[in-house]
Queue: 3 jobs
Job 1
Amino acid sequence: MPNSTPADLFLSEVKDLYDAEKQLLRALPRIAKNAANDELANAFRTHVQETKGQIGRLEQIFEQLGQRAKSKPCKGMKGLLEEGQEVMEEKGREEVTDCAIAGAGRKVEHYEMAGYIAAQEMAKALGMKEAAQLLNETLEEEKEMDRRLKALSSQLIKEAKTAGMGMEEEEGQGQSRGRGRGRSSSASNGKNGKSASASSGRSSNGRKASNGNGRKASAGRGSGNAGGSKLSHMLTDHDEIKQWAEERGAHPACVKGTGRKKNDTGMIRLDFPGFSGEESLQEISWDEFFDQFDENGLALVVQEKTSGGARSNFNKLVRRQ
């Protein structure tokens, strides 16, 4: 049916958005499953419920228009999801794949944001205030998801870069350590509406290290190197963790923009002097750090010394076995 009037055009846009959201709803569980990083996977899982609500708002607009809820094939969303599928199928380091998945997710969010902005402007011009408000509610959710993916992307890229450097260093030293990687921890804590999340670790030079994709959280990299000395061990005692961090000048922090509600700390980190970047991390109290730590059943894997005997800053948060 041709768009002969502005009202026809608006209805066509709503049908397009309706199809886009339904396509995304089917794809999100698969995307979450393929994300190796728990924080990234949790972001997509959370968005499943949001997308269901967004579909519900569009159905309300159909009712306001006196129309049956009906999809119009959204080729744009189909193309973006096909690109995302190609990213997930590519063989490569899991840290890098996670970066690509986060980037693909941001493309989807920006596409949706553009669609909702256009539809909202049409609704305003047509005097459909209630429809415009419903579209704005969804637009704000899409913006929030994009902000969350932006923060995750920044961290994932840094961690993938550092992990790659660490792997090259290990190869150069001829160490017998494997390249198995633990997974960063994230879970819904169900308390105060928090979206619980935890950090990946930092390498022995103090930079953030990737947790990779150990589907079951490991206690560390292994029990020894070529010389047989222990490389890492797991800590759960608050005092021991605090002592280990403060001996190295580190303090507790969270990643800015990852808390989904007012009192949500978000992703936690140990921040080492000279390696944080003021734009991404924010200092928090030890009480706030350990609240997230305990509510999510986490443990901190640490390394006391590097293979060369120097004091190590390597650490990563994992789920307790």
Note: Confidence is low (pLDDT under 50) at residues 166-230.
Job 2
Amino acid sequence: MTTPYRLYSFEGIDDSLTLIPLCARRTLDALGAKLSLAAWQSLPLPTRQAIAAAGSGGEVAADDAARALSRVDPQPPPVLKVGDPPHDAVPDDVTASLGQEHSLANAVWSALEPLDRWVLVKVARRGNPERIEQAYDEIVGHSADSVHLRPDGSLRMVNVADKSITERTAMAESQITMSSDAFARLQRGDSPKGDVLSTARLAGIMAAKRTSDLIPLCHPLRLSSVEVDCVLMPESNSVRVQTKVIANDRTGVEMEALVAASIAALTIYDMLKAFDRSMVIGKTRLLAKSGGKSGDFVA
């Protein structure tokens, strides 16, 4: 059965919660409360579970924790409240404690869960090399190589909850080249399947909206605009597909623009393949993007 709180293997604490787990210590730090081990062990197990659960989420559930701590008698002495570390950059002292052998890029740090970041800070600042090694392996592990990898090496979709909602824009293109006969039919509009370019534009728009269903690690986004234009290029018997996608969200729309361009080009192929099965789709690329922490890009 899944517990509402999170325990780390390197802590060596089981569900009896005889010792104070790190998730509970995060709760106590946030509330500015210092609890002795004896006081902790005097609490009923459901109360200890509630305090641990309060510190396991994205934010400390302060109200739930305060209600649980109200059952402590005598009340713990107040201490300075300590919040979570910044999510966008690794604190300098943590980097120093981890050392060169434990790389931790800001992008990886930002992708960690809030509790993970808090634990790394707590462990690093205590300076126990063995403990730092264990915490790093369990919390970071293979994620040091890619934010899309879990510590154990399995894939994950990156948590973008800490990112700001801003306007994100991306432009992409693809090109499909065909025989002169197929291109002539496209120009005349006599394909047996109907209006090739209108269908391709619609397919591109639909594809942009379904990108997260097609690309495994993409997030579903709230798109505010999708434009798909098909430009005839008689000198090369080709069609250039250009797309522009805009969203107000926490992550970029590059993949949406690229998927729209690709699917529009594939739709043109499908509608004209009766006349040329050797059509070539190529030069699919991102033209530009703006918005987000990574900044702007122009090809």
Note: The longest strand covers residues 166-177.
Job 3
Amino acid sequence: MDFLLHILAGASVGFAIGVTGVGGGSLMTPLLLVFGYPAPVAIGTDLLYAAITKANGAYAHHRRGNVDWKIVILLASGSIPVSICLHAFFLDTNFQNSPQFEELLTKSLGMMLIVTSIILIFKDYIRNKSVEEVPGFFMIPLHRHRSTITWAMGLLLGVCVTLSSVGAGAFGAAILLTIYSQTSIVKIIGTDIAHAVPLTFIAGLGYLFSGFVDNLLLISLLLGSLPAIHVGSKVSAHLPDKILQRTLAIILLALGAVYIV
């Protein structure tokens, strides 16, 4: 019975991803927490779920030429080492057995849900601003130092995704839209997805090696979500995506507040 319930949960989240383009870690991890899974298991399982589900999208974008691999490598050179270091030196066995471990993960999740909801609310504004130069951003010429800033943002994404499973989607895309203001939106999305695959996979492996991934749960979620993503993407053109995304933003904001408090 639980197996079927998890398939339905995967299908629901997969449909949301297909329709809105958002909802992987933002919806799946809170949903698994509602099912009663401990935060490390929910986050670890969701990270590997995200790596598998995003891999197909990354390949499709690559075939269409919508991935800037130089940006992916820059981001990954910051995000992947910091994810490995977090697992090796911070989220070690001693800390995993402490009561602070789950509290850190749930509060990190809450913070990232709030950030994601705000980005969804102001997505159109960010999109419009992305075509403009922002010379005063961080008090240095942004576009002159974009490689360094991209690497630093990779570090930030590595921390956020490893601790919460959230950040590799809307948050990562918003960062890239700001840094690479002259790059097309479809290329930003493709690049963001391509970077999310290795990051979520490496971060998920850290939880897997620590025993915090439920393999049967992962399989059931994939069985439901993979066909549902395809269905959602097909019907997305016939649904009011702005209303759906704003509704999703309100849900994420409320969930984030619950986990922060």
Note: Residues 134-140 have pLDDT under 50 and may be disordered.
